[in-house]
Every structure is written in structure tokens, then in C-alpha cells.
# Entry
Amino acid sequence: MAKQLRQTDDPRTLTLLGFDYGRKRIGVAVGQTLTATATALTTVRARDGKPDWSAISTLLAQWRPGALVVGIPYHMDGSEQDMSRAAQRFCRQLEGRYGLPVHRAEERLSSYTVEAALGAGTQEVDPLAAQVILQDWLQQHAQQ
# Structure
């Protein structure tokens, strides 16, 4: 029986899931450290700010990430906004539920950038925003 590669066997090939948190929708992307690339994956629904934890659990079981990355939005001057605090709460919930490292990635205008490129109202915005967040984080942490 072949040995399954665990995330800790080779840190250069660590898989990560990235999240663009929203109170109604959470964009999800997958990436890995070897190539420092990310791919848009899906959108997880949230109701009244409460994520669909079952859907998130399914994604974690499927992708078996070694860590998670969550975009934390700030105002352009760097100050916190309501969504900053909500995204930080989401980070703490992920840590508590799954016991994985959760990295906070400062993100400004990721959804706006994607909407401008695709056109407003496109369903693809959330996972693509998560891809932008995760891709930026991976590139900043490549070869560290």
C-alpha cells in the first residue's frame, strides 16, 4: 500500500485554501506553495453572517490544506471597518473548528478589482477575489 503524502512531509508543496469572507457569500480558492499559484474554486453561502460550516468542512476534507488564508479588508487609510472585524471573527472560528494555522492577508479592493475586470454582478467575483487574496499572499511568502 502506497504511503499517502501528508501536508507536513514537504513544506514546499503545502496546499492552502484562501477565503474572501462576506456576510452572504464566501469566495474560496486553492493554492500551493511550490508554484505560489492559486485557482478560484467555489462560493460558500452564508446566512446572516454565519458560514455554511458543512460546506467548508467538505472543502477541507477534499483539499486537506495545511493552512488557511483569509483576506481582511481595511479602509484605504489602513483603518479597520465593520467587515475587518467580521473577517477576524471568521479567522478565529476557522482556527477553533479546524485547528489549522489561519493567516490573515491584508486585502483592499480585491472584489472591486475583479468586478472591474469582469463586470459588476458576475457570480464569479467571490472565488476570483479569494484567488487574488491567496495569490498575493503566496507571492509575498514565496521562498521565505
Notes: Residues 110 and 129 are 5 Å apart (CA to CA).
